[in-house]
UniProtKB/TrEMBL annotation:
Lineage top rank: taxon: Bacteria
This protein's name: Rubrerythrin
Organism: Chlorogloeopsis fritschii PCC 6912
Residue ranges of every copy of the Rubredoxin-like domain listed in the record: 180-231
One Pfam family it belongs to: Rubrerythrin
UniProt key word Metal-binding: yes
Chain coiled-coil ranges: none
MF terms in GO: iron ion binding; oxidoreductase activity
Length: 237
C-alpha cells in the first residue's frame, strides 16, 4: 500500500513522534525518581518507556517497510548495504534539517522572545519572571550550539554512507594551532571553538581550550572539561 502523502502517513509520523517523546520523557522521570529513592516508581517509568519504544518501532516499520529485516540469511551483501545506506540517508536528512532549518529558526525565535516587550517586562517582575527570561537566553544559546552539533552529526553520517558505498574515507587531523583548534565533547558532541569562546559561561572569544578554567563544563550536557577531546577536521588538499 502506498501511504505517501496520505493522512495515514501523517498520522503514523505524528504517532511515532509522540511515542518517541514519551519514551525519553519516561526515562527522564525514571532517572528523577531513582534519584529520589523511589525505586519501584522508577522501575515503572522505565518499563513503560520500553513499551513506548516498541510502539514507536511498530509505527516506524509501517512508515519505512524498506527497513524491515525479515530473514537476514536470505539477504545478499548488496541488499544489506542498501538497507544500511537507507538508514544513513534518513539520518542525514534528519540531522541536516535540524542544523539548517530547525535549530536556526529556534535560535532566532528564542532571541526574539528574549528581546521583546514581554521579556523586558519579565526582567522587571519578580524572580520567577527573571528566571523565565534567563531560560529564554539559555535556549537561544543552546540552540545555536546544537546547530553545529547537528551539522557534525550529518557529516559523520554522510562519511559513513560514503565508506559503505566503497569510497575512501577523507583524512582528518587536529589543528596544531591552539588559537584555532576546536574541541568536541565525547558525551553530546558540543564543539568548543576558541575563536567564539563561550561568553555565556564567562569564556571570552579567543580563549584557547587549554586556558579554560578546569571547573568549566559543557553548556549543553554539563560534562566536565575532561570529557572534551581535540576535534579533527577534514584535511584539505
Amino acid at each position: 500500500m502506498d501511504l505517501s502523502n496520505s493522512n495515514t502517513a501523517k498520522n503514523l509520523a505524528e504517532a511515532f513522534g509522540g511515542e518517541s517523546m514519551a519514551n525519553r520523557k519516561y526515562l527522564f522521570f525514571a532517572e528523577v525518581t531513582r534519584q529520589l529513592g523511589m525505586n519501584e516508581l522508577s522501575k515503572l517509568f522505565r518499563e513503560t518507556a520500553n513499551q513506548e519504544t516498541e510502539h514507536a518501532f511498530a509505527h516506524f516499520r509501517l512508515m519505512h517497510p524498506e527497513l524491515v529485516v525479515g530473514d537476514v540469511a536470505s539477504l545478499t551483501e548488496e541488499q544489506k548495504k542498501a538497507i544500511a545506506a537507507r538508514c544513513l540517508e534518513l539520518a542525514i536528512e534528519g540531522e541536516t534539517y535540524e542544523y539548517t532549518t530547525m535549530y536556526p529558526e529556534f535560535t532566532e525565535q528564542a532571541r526574539a522572545d528574549r528581546d521583546n516587550k514581554a521579556v523586558v517586562e519579565f526582567e522587571a517582575q519578580q524572580a520567577e519572571s527573571r528566571e523565565h527570561a534567563n531560560t529564554f537566553r539559555k535556549a537561544a544559546h543552546n540552540f545555536g550550539l546544537l546547530t553545529h552539533v547537528e551539522n557534525y552529526h550529518a557529516r559523520q553520517y554522510t562519511e559513513a554512507l560514503q565508506v559503505l558505498q566503497g569510497e575512501t574515507p577523507l583524512a582528518k587531523q587536529a589543528s596544531s594551532d591552539p588559537a584555532t583548534q576546536k574541541w568536541i565533547c565525547r558525551q553530546c558532541s558540543m564543539i568548543y571553538n576558541p575563536i567564539e569562546g563561550d561568553p555565556d559561561s564567562g569564556i571570552a572569544p579567543g580563549t584557547p581550550f587549554e586556558a579554560i578554567p578546569e571547573d568549566w563544563y559543557c553548556p549543553i550536557c554539563g560534562a566536565s572539561k575532561k570529557a572534551f577531546v581535540p576535534y579533527q577536521e577534514t584535511v584539505t588538499a
